[in-house]
Design a protein that fits this description.
alpha/beta, Rossmann fold, 10 helices
Length: about 240
Amino acid sequence: MTANGGAGAGVTTRCLIADDQAMVREGFAAVLDSQPGLQVVGQAADGAEAIRQARQLEPDVVLMDVRMPVMDGLQATRQMLGGASPKRPRVLMLTTFDLDEYVYEALRAGASGFLLKDATAAELVHAVRVVAAGDALLAPSVTRRLIADFARQPRPHPPFPSAIGALTPRETEVLRLIAHGLSNNEISSALVIAEQTTKTHVGRILAKLDLRDRAQAVVLAYETGLVTPSGSGAADTSPGIGPHR
């Protein structure tokens, strides 16, 4: 049985690892295969092979390196997620600090989050579970770099989709805080509301704007000018990797 919106009892999350370094693939595979409810069903050494295996094996989560021969991870992610198939996997990009320029493009391509390649085994397992459950995972450092990218490349007079006008004032406020990198718990504290209320707001925002997850919400908020790098608020600067749920 494959994952379907969460990792519950008896549910196995099928993983595909795409990286041109055999040691990275095998190390990640060993960690994931040792965990209950996680199974590595394939490994790929380049983006083209990752696409072929994804179509054949139908994984729930693809760990995708950015720099690979034949086809890089960005192009592979676009092709993998660009179709209308309901069986599209979640993509977790494998990145390092020197790949900042790819963060924004990977999010636009549909990636659900980022994992630093020097992450611990616990962080790797946590990241896969978060993404498999349908949430976005952005390390605070990645959120800050995303904001910095928008600061370096300002987008004058951005479009403001009518769908955002359908958000309530509170939903708009929550979307701004999402874009600044705050978690549900942090949003709840900032607005003095229950965390379940925050989760409800987030769900309604994603539904109204036809967004798959919070990663897409961050991109939309900046692209439309709802939030700007010089705007009020700051990205979450707490250490470590965590789900922005």
